[in-house]
Design brief:
about 220 residues, alpha+beta, Glutaredoxin, 6-stranded mixed sheet, disulfide bond
């Protein structure tokens, strides 16, 4: 994505078929999408999540650790979550920038089994420039990740991690995504990078229209 959007009027937030008003639970934009349900994306059992008690809206984030705009969005999303305790955040790693992106995504997913996902996620985005294997190890150390345990979990949970990444790589394009970052906010699809004010307004609109709304937001 090539810019950060700052106006809700120009933000093409799309109601997702199957998440929107008057639709069934199936996303029906293609033959593949017809088999994808709302819960398959929001409730994937392996995808890392931040789920505060009493949350009233879910944001699903599609991101790649080697995506520059994803790196910039990390602080925006962190600020949103810190200021709004009613948001559940679901991480769907979509490593589209090559093997190192896959390596970073796998490490982040595996870190949840030692309770370090949030710390490692932040550390992976904290560095400047592109990640490499050494930078991933450095980020893990900075996040307090037990490296031998991480390596063991990468082996132990390999099938689960691989299956999660495969599901995401199938689901993301099936619902119309072309790159990272992208978000599902309530019942709406918001492709691209957003500033904090726009993201907050999108959340507010999604709360007002929990079953979907068929047009872009107005100011």
């Amino acid at each position: 994505m090539n810019r950060i959007r700052s106006s809700v009027a120009t933000l093409a937030v799309l109601a997702i078929t199957g998440l929107g008003i008057g639709a069934t639970d199936a996303l029906t934009t293609s033959a593949v999408a017809a088999t994808i349900t709302k819960s398959a994306i929001l409730e994937d059992p392996v995808a890392p999540k931040v789920a505060p008690k009493g949350y009233d809206i879910t944001i699903v984030q599609f991101a790649d650790y080697n995506c520059g705009y994803c790196r910039r969005m990390h602080s925006v999303v962190a600020a949103l979550i810190a200021s709004d305790p009613k948001i559940r955040l679901v991480y769907r790693d979509w490593p589209i920038f090559g093997p190192v992106s896959v390596e970073a995504a796998r490490a982040a997913i595996a870190s949840q089994w030692q309770g370090k996902h949030e710390a490692l996620n932040a550390a992976l985005y904290a560095g400047a420039g592109k990640l490499d294997s050494s930078a991933i190890r450095t980020a893990a150390n900075r996040a307090g990740v037990n490296w031998p345990r991480l390596q063991a979990d990468l082996v132990k949970h390999k099938a689960e991690i691989d299956a999660l990444l495969a599901r995401t790589s199938e689901q993301a394009p099936a619902i119309g995504l072309q790159g990272t970052p992208a978000f599902i906010i309530g019942a709406y699809l918001a492709p691209g990078a957003l500033d904090l004010a726009t993201l907050r307004k999108a959340v507010a609109e999604a709360r007002r229209h929990p079953n979907g709304w068929s047009r872009a937001y107005d100011e």
